[in-house]
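debug: dumping io for the single-chain case to check the tokenizer round-trip. Nothing else runs in this session.
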Amino acid sequence: MKRRALVLTLILVLLFLMVVGIQFVDITLANPTLAPSPYPETPDTTPPSIKIQIPEPNKIYNAKTVPYSITIEKPASWFENDTNHGTLRSIGYILDGKENITLADCQKSYLPDFQSETRTISLEGNLSGLSEGSHTIQVWVNSVSIYHPSDTPQNFYGWWAAVAEYPIETSSNIVHFSIANPLIEPEPFPTILAVGSVATVTIIDAGLLVYFKKIKKTGSK
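debug: decoded output
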């Protein structure tokens, strides 16, 4: 009897603890006491700025390889309230309105500057194999704004399990530039003509020399 009573007591204690634990979890979910979310309740739709330093607008280049220099600046509003709630995802450019080239993608490789508090991102490289004539380049940036919707309260796992991402797609102005036609080299002076000219000058000089010698002899008689 004593053993049965002990076993029954242990079962009752375990059931009591389970009921208390369930009630505690329900209270925690209904009234979370975790730290407030550091993210805003609405997405920050301010886009990053894009500047193309090179190629220069309307410039004519004399080579089929032209360097590029691009600067991306994150908006100051992404860093308000000591929180970095905006991040870059990928950067690329469109050449001549057709060829789309991705220069950097944080989903394929780790790019700490894209997600850190670094305000300015600089990219440099070359546009190779350009044909003669007119060209255009336009830079694009994909980024996201991280926010915590007001209608999505914290849960037992914390505010980070309830955040959302707002995609932002940004494009720069289109820069026009050109690749010049090959320079026309002057044709070399014909070799035969040059030799003939020298020979003509030599004959004339010889004739004048003989003529003056004759005059000199005639004058001496």
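debug: round-trip ok. The helical segments are 2-30, 112-115, 191-220.
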